[in-house]
Amino acid sequence: MLEVTGLRVSYGGIQAVRGVSFHVADGEMVALIGANGAGKTSTLKALARLLDAAGGSVRYRGEEISKLPPHMLVGSGIALVPEGRGVFPRMSIVENLQMGAYCRDDKAATAADMAHVFALFPRLKERAAQLAGTLSGGEQQMLAIGRALMSRPRLLLLDEPSMGLAPIMVQKIFEVVRAVARDGMTVLLVEQNAKLALQVSQRGYVMESGTITLTDDSAKLLATPGVRAAYLGE
Amino acid sequence: MNAPTRPIFFDALRRNKSTAIAATVALGIVLAALPFLIGSHLGNSWLRILDFALLYIMLALGLNIVVGFAGLLDLGYIAFYAVGAYLYALLASPHFGLHLPVWLIIPAGAALSGIFGVLLGAPTLRLRGDYLAIVTLGFGEIVRIFLNNLNAPINITNGPQGISGIDPIRLGGVTLAKPIDFLGITVPSLHAYYYLFLALALLIVFITIRLENSRIGRAWVAIREDEIAAKACGIDTRNIKLLAFAMGASFGGVAGGLFAGFQAFVSPESFSLMESVMVLCMVVLGGMGNIPGVILGGVLLTLLPEIFRHGAGPVQQAIFGKVLLDPEALRMLLFGLALIVVMLYRPAGLWPSTTRRREFRGDAA
Questions:
Q1: Helix, strand or coil, per DSSP, at residue A61
Q2: Where are the domains of chain A?
Q3: At the top level of CATH, which class does the domain A2-231 belong to?
Q4: Which of B225, B236, B358 to probe the A interface (max A CBs under 10 A)?
Q5: Which of A79, A142, B115, B194 suits B18 as a labelling partner, its CA being 20 to 30 A distant?
Q6: ipTM metric
Q7: A66 close to A6: Cβ distance less than 8 angstroms
């Protein structure tokens, strides 16, 4: 579904991503793990077209998307949950979810999808009219994921969903991510929490200073001594 | 806080159709009778102030689209007012000997200002907040300085002397500069201008309300709240931002054209940074993003300096028996104080939108 080859991202003269290649197959959940500053988020931002790539190609369902303007991606089925959540603080939960369906005009199906999001996150339903800015960090992350789902994506890009959240919240959110993936969603998950990411995903890529240094099935990566030492604190 | 009383009042209006109609009719009668009441009780100077209040409402509503809805801090907004005003002045005055009709110039002014809005917006798409404020401030000053200096080598704007003898606004062969006989009633010039400005201000209010509740309006708010999230929702942030600049600027262009016809004189002095700041104050003080609030801000900030100007003398006379301080000097001092007091006690503005009121009170639900 997604084929990335030789992707490079630079900030000024500094190369943050130095020729990264990976792929995500249909219905698969793939984790991109690595330490802070390894270039994970830059990679994802370049995929979502929030940054201009300095080089390389990104093919989505066979089509080159690395030159498309960002708003075109949503229509083609890619949804990003931005780093640090990025909900609209002065909009209610319902309004936030409606913004997720901005590119759609099928009212009935949108309402059904909102009911689905509320079923996934009952906590959001309880607070439907509350302003998003007054929610806890975990609830905002739920809302950000729910909003991304409202565009009916085929490919969900998750940027550090566990960042700054209490462990119990992280568990809850990953349960939902797993449930969404089980329903057939293709997911690319960028995470610092390597253990959790490798537990929920099928395959993983390890990123270090802008390059992918290791790739394997997630279960095998979890057992690899180097990964255990570097990212799992053992 | 006694804030709930007002929402209840408006809820009643919303729920009860006949009450709403009655309120609209009552408001219509008040607005229609206002110039006659003010003209006969307070005199022509206050009528002129009233006419200006309507122009400022149009400006404030235009700036509200950029600052209030889209969250783009613009400190050079008055440049669009200047573009509209100078276009009118150049196309309908002895300066070039052109005397084009109003119905052509005002839409042209709106369009040209809109284009200037895009010209300002395009290079600043990546800027936000204070950086954007600096660039827009520069833009406003550039336009003013151009108007000031474009009298050589070819005299286009007549420089600091400005352009005088501008044609008054004529509608269907009737000039608004002289009293008009309408169904046996004599409508004096200032009254006629009032009705024209009121009609256009209402049109702008209508357009703004429709925009606010449209997909475009929601996209503006989304960009204001979080630009990256807005992009992630599939909003074409570039075009939607440019549209905000263009729409806001076109309202300013309309107001500018009316100003030129009304004043019969334009000069760069009228378009100083202070004017931009004034319009921004109207938006912020009234209640950013809330249309009734912005209108209230426009009216109050036009009237307050005049009230201080006219009131400071007599009040001093009554208290101290003589005028201690020059009312002209005192006026801006009092005005500044009023701004500070409002911002301290009503940080969300005098009449904020429901969301902002909730946010500033820190309500959870």
A1: coil
A2: 2-231
A3: alpha beta
A4: B225
A5: B194
A6: 0.90
A7: no
